[in-house]
Amino acid sequence: MARGRPSKKAHIIDAACGLFSKQGYQSTSIDQVVLAAEVSKPTVYSNFPTKLVLWETVLESLIEHAKKDMNACLCCLEEGNDSIFTKGWVSLWQTWVGKPERLAVYRVLLGEQHKMEASTRVLFDQFETVLEAILKRWVKDCHVSQDSFFLLKAISKEALLMPVLLNQTRMSSEQLSLLVEKVIATKE
Question: What is this structure's pTM?
Answer without folding.
Answer: 0.89
